[in-house]
Amino acid sequence: MGQDLKLKASDGFELGGYRADPAGAPKGAIVVIQEIFGVNHHIRSVCDRLAQEGYVAIAPSIFDRIEPNFQSGYSPDEVANARKFVANPDYPAMLRDAQAAIDAVKSVGPVGIIGFCLGGSIAYSAATKLTGLSAAVGYYGGAIVRFADDKPAVPTQLHFGEKDAGIPLSDVETIKSKRPEVEVFIYPGAQHGFHCDERASYDKTSADIAWPRSLEFFGKHLR
Fold it and tell me: Is residue 117 flagged as an active site residue?
């Protein structure tokens, strides 16, 4: 359904990405921010699913500055290798790349952003710092608690797994107390990565609740 494309960030850097377009006139656009595994099969499938819902979906390759075209699976060795990208993340650079994706699709209508894992943190930060967005959704972003003093400029919804080994519920409670205007959902028994049906931590019950919630949220705010 989709195709690879090139984007140019404000500092002149060219990065890759993936874009999927709906069959009919788009309702709007959604920027999809990857996990630490690159714009891989799963992230492309998320874009395809959003296109089926009527949105132009675009996923910028935010690791291209470090390793162009990086894509990974989910074996223990692949997970260990992918972690190198978040040892010292350059959030300003990744936000520039996210802004390039927003700018590439803003002509089609209102733009939302959704991110998973690292991308969940980027999506939250984008809601506080970037221009051209109308809504933001973040799944299990571990750094969101560090950004929670920053107020989103657009409606924002966050999803966390109760059993996420990397995000204690105390962090989620901190986010909720600092940002009462943000919708926060906790999924009982769910681990980190519960939305990804290619990971061992996939939790279908939670994913089947969170995804429609996300779509409903976008439907409400991308008008």
Answer: yes
Q: What pLDDT, in 10s, does the model give residues 184-218? A: 999 999 999 999 999 999 999 999 999 999 999 99
**Quick check: is 192 catalytic?**
yes
118-129 vs 91-105: helix crossing angle, rounded to 10: 70
Decide if 164 is catalytic.
yes
Read off the pTM.
0.98
194/65 Cα distance (integer angstroms): 28
From the candidates 21, 64, 97, 164, give the one annotated as an active-site residue. Answer: 164
Give the end-to-end CA distance of the chain in Å, rounded to a whole number.
24
